[in-house]
Amino acid sequence: MTRRICILYTGGTIGMEQGERGWRPAPSFAALTDRLHPGLRNGAEVREYSPLLDSANAGPEVWYRLGRDIRALAADYDGFVVIYGTDTLCYVAASLSFQLAGTGIPVAVTGAMVPMVAEGSDGGANLGLALKTVTAMADGPAAQHGVSVCFNGRVIHGARARKLMAHDMDAMRDAAALLDGQPRPQTAVAAPGRASLPAVAETAPVPTVALLTLHPGIGLHADSLFAVPPQGLIVECFGSGTGPTADAGLVRLLHRLRDGGTVMVAVSQCLHGAIAFDTYEAGAAFADAGVIAGGHMTREAALTKLHLALSLGLGRDVLAEDWVGEM
Asked: Is position 97 annotated in a ligand binding site?
């Protein structure tokens, strides 16, 4: 059975052309693919976004537009391949994992480190893997449907992917595999208590979500941070959830943000390990300030999950629960 696959081309390195100031996104991805890799699309339809973007310039508005478009087109296609730039590809993959949880829509996200038109490009191989993966998901049981990142021969859970290399073809890795040697299986588990989450409306207010990376001495200038408290904050802690909490400046900051209504989620700066505030005394202050322990979540998963929860007006309690295997 031939599956109906839709390729959503947002831009990124894979389809770029050389411009006067460097590589830039270029249109006509279907024609480019057919010229360089005849037969690769195998009937998959390409829908191009406008304007095309370098993923460095793509944010939540693009994540949510993709989520809305995939839902709107789901009745016409068996699966979707999202073409995205690699710099923030793991953010969009995580966001789509949460947005589409429980919908049963197969999605593969891919891109390239080298443009298709350049010698030695990985674009054709990555696109081929994504098309093969999303077709296999569509042919398989619904429990295996979800969002995957397809890159350099790897199929990675969408909410566990991280870009670890700036130039290497093997740039994307599974954070769970880095943790225990085993890739985490894909899952279509829905958010707690819901068959699926509603789409984020185009007119929905955009919440302010910030990232705070702790470092030795941060308390010396903590009082000057976040004069206007953000609605959400990802706190990147040391190790298993510690920080320089003996410094009164950092503790004052956390309590000021909590009292200002900021929802805070902690993740580890380490690639291996999970947040557990009860392990060390230096971590207890985060729990006292109301910071939510993010478990094994990556920075990308935590930020996009928090952003989505705030966009939909979900309670803070759901952030401590596992939605799609990200924790």
From this structure: no
Question: Does some domain include residue 192?
Answer: no
Domain range enclosing 118: 5-180
In a domain, 66, yes or no: yes
Find out whether 28 is annotated in a ligand binding site: no
Residues 214 and 169 in one domain: no
The pLDDT tens digits for 96-114 are 999 999 898 999 999 999 9
pTM greater than 0.70: yes
The segments of the chain whose pLDDT lies below 50 read: 185-194
Catalytic residue among 2, 10, 13, 245: 13
Residue 67, SS3?
helix
- Is residue 203 annotated as a catalytic residue, yes or no? no
Asked if residue 191 belongs to a domain, the reply is no
